[in-house]
User: Fold these one by one.
Assistant:
Number 1:
Amino acid sequence: MSGEVILRGEGLVKSFGGLIAVNEVSFNLYRGEILGLIGPNGAGKTTLFNLITGFLKPDRGKVYFNDKDITGWPPHRIALEGVARTFQLVRPFLRMTALQNVMISALSKVGGLEEAEETALELLEFLSLSDKRDWRASSLTIVERKKVEVARALALRPEVLLLDEPIAGLNPKEVDDMLETLREIRKRGVTILIVEHVMRAIMNICERIIVMHYGRLIAEGTPSEISSDPKVIEAYLGGVM
Ligand SMILES: Nc1ncnc2c1ncn2[C@@H]1O[C@H](COP(=O)(O)OP(=O)(O)OP(=O)(O)O)[C@@H](O)[C@H]1O
Ligand SMILES: [Mg+2]
């Protein structure tokens, strides 16, 4: 893969006590791609997301966004700079409506209420959630909550979107729907890094995949290269057996 690197990790390390959750991880994310990050449970994927987005500080290593060193910046500053994320455990404000949830996020990027509402309405429309705009998040289904989460991230007008298991828990039709949405998001010029266990989805949507296992990057390649890589097969079989 070549092209312009938009996000780069260099030698990232994060330990929790004696456990090295992320171990010397370096990666490139190229502008315009959808890059998959896979690996068995506990491989360090979410921890890597937390290092990139400022929710955790790395023990060592650097994160560069558009060649700017953003290592250790606070999460809100990284988000406003252009790297937004969703969470593995979706956490909208349950007592607020879908619209309010997205507006709150938009308000950190735009000046006034009116503009925030306009942004939020446009994004809810884009995610086919217009008819649920006044529903409390607590009354929404899983897929709708996940979409609100995506809309909240997009309200920050990011250049890079990090998605932590946006497809887990969805039925096959909802999966296809979400994949189509992700393709549309990419068409809007957003570069995507996605963590997901649903292999059918990852293989379908990513042109490139990186694989973590016990904190380390063990493979990188196209979906077909990854699915026939002995190291990857062993990592997954090791997990089940
Ligand atoms: N805050 C923390 N304190 C202590 N250990 C942690 C913490 N966060 C993660 N870990 C540990 O670090 C390792 C990597 O966890 P992480 O959540 O990054 O994995 P993951 O690849 O996202 O897994 P999953 O696919 O299950 O979401 C695990 O062993 C986990 O228990
Ligand atoms: Mg995780």
Number 2:
Amino acid sequence: MPSSSRIDALLKPVKIRGVELPNRVIMSPMTRGASPNGVPTPAVAAYYRRRAEGGVGTIFTESVFVEDKGTMGKFDLEGGDDRQTGWPLMFTDAALEGWRHVVDEVHAAGGLIFPQLMHLGIQRTPARGQAWSDIHISSPSGIFGTPDQIAALKEDAAKALNCPEKSMTEAEILAVIDAFACAAANAKAVGFDGIALHGGHGYLIDNFLREETNRRTDRWGGDHVGRTRFAVELVRAVRKAIGDEMLISFRFSQWTHHDLDAQLSKTPEQLKQILEPIAEAGVDIFEASARDFRDTVYEGSPLNISGWTRKLINKPVVMVGGTGVRRDRYESALTPPQVVDNVDEVMERYVAGEFDLLAIGRALLNDPDWLQRARTGEPFLPFNPACLKIGYVE
Ligand SMILES: Cc1cc2nc3c(=O)[nH]c(=O)nc-3n(C[C@H](O)[C@H](O)[C@H](O)COP(=O)(O)O)c2cc1C
């Protein structure tokens, strides 16, 4: 092993809110669907442990569901759908015991671990055998998106997803916030080191942030600053539930799953005005989720979204997207990417101050020892398409 390497700067520990992260590398959240009945198995624990053994300092788990009728609930678990029952929960005694084991395994390997808590919002779909009309969809305004996006939906989906009369009520909004707080308290109780909130990609927190899906005129809506209220209240509730010592990371994105060209913020000033209140509510780290770190965000600027966030907000920022892999702009995350060695380019951006922490997704899914190879200069492994499949936890 060389005594110095091109990624050494990322391997130094860093202290945030009194918590020492072993290094600046994070495993990016990746849904695995390998937790039957919402309970992470020993195989899931071993999967995360292997990444910590491979040198990842902090693991952000796959999305884990909070308890609400608009997302995974006991009903779905009992419904017997293979795909949905593989998604893990941050409630039920059995799921929490499963997580306790995951946390212990990662800690034993010297890593930290945060669960990524999420609520599907308008991306809820029926379980196998269920009708669209039988599921509860949590939607800020009962609007799925732009007229084009609505037109692209099948008839029954369009009907279920576009019901302004079913906009979330005040009580439903408060119940979801409470569900996040309860899930965060559960995570603390089983030993997690922090909480990662999924505020991007077109799920519920993100649905509130955007004008396409949030047309509310009450205190949960308004302009881009008014639309941050749901995220702000949710972060406050999570902070209250976990106390002052644990970290909170907040993932956001310009794009959504159903509109890769969407823009959460049209200008840097808007981005600052969106993130500032969320930061003040108790966030310690912002995960600026890009599909590729080379993607620029505002016309005329070469900076990517993490570079802009770092410039605008005085909090540590995570860069994510495209480390060790490459795909075409509109290609799905589930299409096997090309393996590339772009480590030098990533490090140039680190030195240029575009990010503080680096999240790595598919490269680590494909190879738990990816970081060691980046360090030693050993060639990277070819991409194994099987690793993208639901249920893979090698
Ligand atoms: C199979 C798969 C599952 C994913 N699941 C999640 C998820 O649960 N939550 C999330 O925020 N992002 C999810 N992502 C996105 C990744 O966290 C990451 O942002 C994306 O893959 C880009 O990083 P990469 O190029 O290093 O893979 C997923 C990506 C893949 C490939």
Number 3:
Amino acid sequence: MSRISRRRAIVSTMATALAAGVTANSQDKKMSKSATWDSIVIGAGVFGAWTAWYLRKAGRRVLLLDALGAANARASSGGESRLTRGSYGSDEVYTRFALNSLSQWKWLSGQSGLPVFHPTGIVFFFQKREAYVDQSLEVHRRLQLPTQELDRAALERRYPQATWKDIEVGLLEPGFGVLMARRAVQTLVGAFVKSGGEYRVAAVKPPAADRALSQVELSDGTTVSAGNYIFAGGPWLPRLFPRLLGQRIFVTRQEVFFFAPPAGDARFGAASLPGWADFNDGDIYYGMPDLEGRGFKIAHDKHGPPIDPDRGDRVASPGALADVRAYMARRFPALANAPLNEERVCQYENSSNGDLLIDRHPTADNVLLVGAGSGHGFKHGPEVGRYASELLTGKLKTVEPRFSLETKAEQQNRAVH
Ligand SMILES: Cc1cc2nc3c(=O)[nH]c(=O)nc-3n(C[C@H](O)[C@H](O)[C@H](O)COP(=O)(O)OP(=O)(O)OC[C@H]3O[C@@H](n4cnc5c(N)ncnc54)[C@H](O)[C@@H]3O)c2cc1C
């Protein structure tokens, strides 16, 4: 066999394996080290995977790389589940992103053997009628969302498994619900590979220069090159671009707990309880019903201390456990002493105010930066991917100021909830 036909045979074997959904890692050692793609996406979390998907849909040759694997346990997208909701106060840009993403999540659900989207509905409730309530309702009316306002009596009638005596008003969003995060991203990467995209487990070294990139170096010393590069490294972005993002993305430790409802008690399952969030004067607690037998999920949305995504340990603190137990005793008294099923430690990669980052690198004009999910980014994954790909294909000419690097300050002042 000549060298050329041997190479063709390898490429054809690889394409067949990828089309069959085999992960690329078993094949990638055979890849030509000098191969060139239109785009290389670094990071197969929710943002990178959707960006790769949309670029592929636009006919681009795309290589998707992840250092630890798609939606791995240390990635922000590696958790079990994420809420999707349309209430964002007056921040209509995020209501629109969440709403437009929903049809893509439903499509992805159809690609997976198991649900990616659970249409549980979402109830967001408030101790007092915050401006946020009327602003959300106003935006939802304009976008023709069927959001319902519930007073305390209605909340008590619908959800007697919770106590509502301190609550004035709730917003019920029947069309939204819960996304199965890890499953979603891994299903999407499978679909991306089946559509002809290439995926490899490989770590990209931080680019050395602040000018247009001709290639990136991998941790094994090889290089890969493309016309443009999308860095969607989530909480690792500050490490990839320390001078640019080291002070603009704040990575915080977040703790999540799953509790076992009483045996035979269906009140905390998805048929009786929607996904929920307690506004709590801006100091939000949120949770989800017992989905797929994992348990009732709860977390305090408050930013934790800084964490290193590579080295930070993943054992929850006794303080955080006590905090959510105290909350459950107040709000869901039947769960006050529920046994703990599981704990997870993850991280938020926060911008100064909670706005997403989707913008070109200021000096390396073939580099796009995508990240700063800020604890609410997962639901927006499809729209982030579409937006990023349209910036690269030229369909979008300007960057929405809310997503620009310029608007990312070096002091934290959280404003997006
Ligand atoms: C506890 C918790 C609860 C949350 N709840 C919600 C919620 O209810 N609703 C919601 O919408 N959002 C929620 N979020 C936010 C959401 O999960 C994140 O905004 C989103 O997952 C961020 O995705 P990402 O793709 O930017 O980053 P990641 O998922 O972290 O992906 C980045 C990827 O880049 C890879 N990578 C990094 N560096 C390199 C390198 N040098 N080379 C190659 N690969 C690299 C990593 O391995 C990783 O897989 C929550 C987050 C957490 C932590």
Number 4:
Amino acid sequence: MADLDTFRREARAWLEANAPKIAYEPVPSTDDLCWGGRKVAYEPGVKQWLDVMASRGWTAPTWPAEYGGGGLDRDEARVLSQEMASLGLRPPLIGFGLSMIGPLLLQEGSEELRREHLPGIIRGEVRWCQGYSEPGAGSDLASLQTRAVVDGDDFVLNGQKVWTSYADKADWMFILVRTDPDAPKHEGITFLLMDMATPGVSVRPIRLISGASPFCETFLTDARVPRRNVVGRVNGGWTMAKALLGHERTMIAGMGTSDRTTTSDSLPDYAREYLGVEAGRLSDPVLRDRIAQLEIDRRCFELTLARSRDGMKAGHKPGPETSIFKLYGTELNQRRREMMVQIAGPQGLGWDGEGFSDDEIRVTRDWLRSRGNSIEGGTSEVQLNIIAKRVLGLPD
Ligand SMILES: Cc1cc2nc3c(=O)[nH]c(=O)nc-3n(C[C@H](O)[C@H](O)[C@H](O)COP(=O)(O)OP(=O)(O)OC[C@H]3O[C@@H](n4cnc5c(N)ncnc54)[C@H](O)[C@@H]3O)c2cc1C
């Protein structure tokens, strides 16, 4: 414990000495955080914060030091994140490298692939995207048709992916391909790592009604990917796909635990701003009850998730229970976003134009974006199926 106290003191002092001013500035949404990669144009200070944290491996605090990670144990990592939170520091880096493919490589990747890819993720040099969904394969992902045929030392890929978040900004993709069309559908899939600069890979952003283009279509025409880029074994990709989804679902579930709002530090503070206070308490008793219940649910879920993450850091592989987290975390985030719109009243229904602050427009947009949480990473219905079959053991 004395060691942990020393670590806390040293970590805090180091953070205070090294964090640039911008690291203390609140960020309106995850899109505004640093995702790294070769294509990013950094705001001044953001790259400095990334580099200084990466130099200690603290962009990936629990990853082994031999790959450039922080090498912290789970208690130290918890202390570090507590100190960052108490100083109000933003994360120096986020992305699918840190939250999805990195953890999978640590769990299942060969030493060669780990050495090739983990340092670039930790330093924020490479941004990753996920090539799972296809026009005919969403919930029924194992029906995917993108073909990969062996030719010499390479696979040659042909097909199409869809809903590829940020493919236009990514440098590498982890992709599921069909390598044996004659095998049962779950047994003919391979998990590959593909450089987006490979000839034959083209990306077309999908423009949404909001004007934003967070998703892309990705087309593959005779794209050559080295055979050594297989994670796991050829035709063993379904096991890798599920393992990665365990990490993805835990990450999405974490959205339900945030206690910050766009405008204030906490939901009760945000409600006080809009609804006013009487005798030190929120003036609307019904909303007061609902906010209290949401905060209790959020805190309980946060602790459950922290326990599970501790288990993962101690080597426990995420299993089908991550579907429970994904389902519940999604519902919590959606409840919270809806409540924020409700609290703001008409001011929570701005889209753009006059009469709404940037923060109020953000509240509306975050509320709409949260609807996607129950689709991405596998829909809520699919999570319920997994919970029924693989957690509760119910018959088909
Ligand atoms: C914000 C967002 C980001 C995304 N990012 C990515 C990405 O980066 N990479 C990627 O590969 N994909 C991505 N996706 C795609 C996502 O994985 C799919 O949308 C999702 O798996 C559902 O597939 P689908 O859209 O084809 O819907 P469908 O599978 O066609 O489902 C339609 C409806 O039918 C229901 N349904 C389907 N099967 C069953 C069943 N067996 N039992 C009960 N109900 C069922 C579903 O729950 C849903 O309500 C993203 C999606 C969103 C919303």
